[in-house]
Amino acid sequence: MSTSWHDKLLGGFRRTSDRLVGNLAGLGGARLDEDTLDTVEEALIASDLGPATAAKVRGRLAEGTFERNMEELGIRLVVAEEVEKVLAQVARPIGIDAFPRPQVILVIGVNGSGKTTTIAKLAHLFLEQDYAVMLAAGDTFRAAAIGQLKTWAERIGVPIVTGPEGGDAAGIVWDAVKQATAIGTDVLIVDTAGRLQNKRELMDELAKIRRVLGRLNPAAPHDVLLVLDATTGQNALSQIEVFKEVAGVTGLVMTKLDGTARGGVLVAAAERYGLPIHAIGVGEQMDDLRPFDAHEVSRIIAGVDAGKRR
Description:
Shape: elongated
Strand content: 5-15%
Order of helices and strands: HHHHHEHEHEHEHEHEHEEH
Number of helices: 12
Strand order of the largest sheet: 3-2-4-1-5-6-7-8
């Protein structure tokens, strides 16, 4: 029997949810005085939700509209409501609306973040929506990246444009756009180099890709997606900071929410940067990357989901 998406979300956010519930344990029935409110705020920060969201929850609890001896479930419900407000602002699937086609999506992220696999899963998601998809292997820095993307393209049955290791990424993108336009492709997903050791080199390469795209289609790239590995926790936030500067990120995809991940960073990223979070990945299967529902995810994080026994 296949596991439902909801059950995968429960598993993916389990570490965050269990940690938050554990950190709030024992507060049920406690008087909501300053010491208790401090404890709640610290528990939320320790669960990677970020200081801004923690402060908002504290503020809600301190308003005096709640009973002064609030049960633990009541506190978690307030957490769920505040988290939902944050996530609802950023939970936004990618719309394929570029005209003329193709819609060009640059995918960036550090090596090891799951970038190449995420590209394949995104392609699969678009194929399910009846869009024609093409891939471009623009990470020419690593032969392994080119080979891996070719394998995925064959597996899911989409065309791919590649070049030699160390080749000109902008040239590959140029060829890909020309081919995608000629055959009526809806979506062109471009892999890019993930090295940050030399930010200037990466910035120059991305700038060159943008110039090439601009000559073919002034609106391209239509999306610049940053793939983040949820298991890195707060380090994911520093990656957003760097890639925003280097690449002009327009949206995020959070991967590796596999039960060991520090999924609360999803909330912290939404709160701090306000960038659209287009999809989240909760496993290794091809359909384990999906847009998410802010209400569902917030309740799972706060441990008040009906499917979770406490």
